[in-house]
Amino acid sequence: MDITINNSNAAPVQDISITPAASPAAPASPAAPASPAADSSSSSAQGSARPKQASIYGEIPTEPVLDAVDGIKFDFNHGIRILIPRNGKNYHIVFSDIDTGIILYSADTVPGAYITSVKKFYIRFRLEIFEKGKEKAIFVHDYDAKDKEVMIQLPVGTIGDSIGWFSYVERFQLKHQCKVICVMTPWISILVRDQYPDITFIGPEETMKYRPYASYYMGLFFKGDVDNQPIDFRYIGLHRTAGYILGVDPADIPPRFNLSAPRRIKEKYVCIAAQSSSQAKYWNNPNGWREIVKFLKNNGYRVLCIDKEPVHGDGLVWNHIPFGCEDFTGSRPLQERVDLVKDADFFIGLSSGLSWLAWGCKVPVVMISGFTHPTNEFATPYRVINYHTCHSCWNDMRVDFDHYDFLWCPRQKGTSRQFECSRLISADQVITTIKKVPTFRPGKPLPELFPDNAETIFGPVDKKSGK
Fold first, then answer.
1. Angle at which helices 353-360 and 159-176 cross, to 10°
2. DSSP strand pairing (179-183 vs 102-108)
3. Which among 206, 236, 207, 204 has a CA at the least distance from the CA of 220?
4. Strand, helix or coil at 157?
C-alpha cells in the first residue's frame, strides 16, 4: 500500500543516493524545494563526514500546476501532488492505481493540506475529490498524458547512463503521444537531439520555464529504494531500470546517433577505452592491455585509445593509457568519438560510458567486466567475465556501492583477492573472445608509421582546456 505525506511541514527527504531536487515544499512555503539527500554512503564506518551530493537534476514547479475544483491544485510532477487551499472546507481525497485497481490513498484532509504519493515512478493515477462526508465525487481525473507536456530528467554528466536510458524516453513519448521535455546535459544531448525532432531538449537550468503535466527522474536509487524505482536496479540492469520507471518496454534498444560522417582512417583499426570512474570497473590484470594491443597490432590493426584522460585515478592509484596504442585521448565532443568509433572493426572497453557509446554506434563491443553481472549492461555476445573468481558485486543486493571510495571492493578489500574479478581475466580469454567477432580480420603487422596522438585526424588539442 502506498503511503502519502499529508503535512503542514516540509516533506522529509528520502534516504537514498540520488534524490531529485524538486521534492515539493510545504504548502505554506511553496517556493523552497527540499534539499537533495546525501549519498547513500555519505559517512564512513568511522563516522567521518563526506561531502553532500550536489543536485544532479533541474527543478520542477514547487506547487501543483493543474486546477481541480474549489481552488484545489494537482499534477503528476514527481508523483501525484494535491494542494488543498485554505478555504475553510474539508475534503476527502482518494487516489488509486488504475491498472491494478489498488486504492493508494483515502483520507480526510484539512485546509492547507499538501498530499503526495511516496511512489514517484510512472503510475496511471486516478484522483477523486469528495466533500467530506459526501458519497459523490465533485472531481475525478484519470492520468492521460496525450498532447500534454511531460518532463523526463536525466542526471547531469553521466555519459553511459544517459545513453542507456535515452531510448526509453522516446518509448514513453510514443506510447502516450505526449510532448516530452527531456532534460539532459547539453554536451550529451547533442548526440541525439537531431535524431529525435519530436522531443524538446533542455538543460537543467531551463526547467523552471515549464509547467509540465507530469515529470519523472531517471536514476539509480540505492539502499533498496523502491519509491523512485519500482524494482531495485540491481535486479534488472543499469539501463532497463529506466523502462520500469517510465512504465514502458524494458527491452534493449540503443539510441540513434548520426553515423553519416565519412570515414577518416583508411587502415583497419580498433577503438579501445581503458579508463573508468572507479577502480572496480578497470581491467586490473597488470599485463592485460599490453598483450591485447600487441595481439591487435600483430594482426594489422591500428589501436586507438579514445578515453578522455590518458591518466586517471585517485590517491596513490593511477591508471595510464595502455602501452603501444595510439593516443586519441582528450576532452573532445562526443560526436567526434562517434565519428571515429562507427568505422572501427570493433570496440574493446569496460562497463563504462564509452562502451555504451560504441553500442549506439552499432559496432561489436567486447566488454571486459567482472564487478557487474552481464545482465547489468546491454546484451553483447562478446562479454568477457571470469566466473571462477569473486564477481558481480555491483548487482549484489547485500552490498551498496560507495561513490566516494575509488578502491571500492565490498567483499575482498584489503586482502590479496581485491579486484580479482577483473585481475583474473586473462589476455588469452579476451583474445579468444576477439576471435569470435565476425568483423575481426587477422592479418600481417602494420609498420609503425602512425602518430601517437589524434592531432592529424581532429586537429591539435589545447592541453589546458582540452579543446
1. 50
2. unpaired
3. 236
4. coil
Active-site choice (39, 75, 161, 327): 161
CB 320 within 8 Å of CB 446: no
Cell 501525484 identifies what position? Answer: 80
Given the DSSP bridges, would you call strands 4-7 and 311-314 parallel, antiparallel or unpaired? unpaired
Q: Is 289 exposed, middle or buried (0-12, 13-18, 19+ CB in 10 A)?
A: buried
Q: By the 8 A CB rule, do 59 and 208 touch? A: yes
Pair 19, 41: CB distance under 8 Å: no
Cβ atoms within 10 Å of 284's Cβ, excluding its own: 20
* Cβ neighbour number for residue 134 with a 10 Å cutoff: 10
Residue bearing cell 583474445:
431
Is residue 106's pLDDT more than 50?
yes
Nearest to residue 204, comparing CAs of 222, 181, 238? 181
The model's pTM: 0.86
CB 77 within 8 A of CB 55: no
Give yes or no for a contact between 329 and 305, defined as CB atoms under 8 angstroms apart.
yes
Contact between residue 324 and residue 289 where contact means Cβ atoms under 8 Å apart: no
CATH for 269-458 is 3.40.50.2000
Residue appearing with cell numbers 486546477 = 67
For 221-278, the pLDDT digits (tens) are 999 999 999 999 999 999 999 999 999 999 999 999 999 999 999 999 999 999 999 9
Cell representation of residue 110: 484539512
Q: What separation in angstroms does the CA of 371 have from each of 352, 387, 396? A: 12, 11, 10
Q: Please report, for the chain, the start and end positions of each structural domain, with discontinuous segments joined by +.
A: 149-246, 269-458
**Residue 232 annotated among the catalytic residues of the structure:** no
Q: Quick check: 360 and 254 in contact, CB under 8 A?
A: yes
Helix (H) or strand (E) holding 382: none
Q: What is the pLDDT of residues 25-81, one digit of tens each?
A: 433 322 322 223 223 333 333 344 566 666 789 999 999 999 999 999 999 999 999
Question: How far lies 193's CA from each of 201, 214, 257, 460, in Å?
Answer: 7, 21, 9, 27
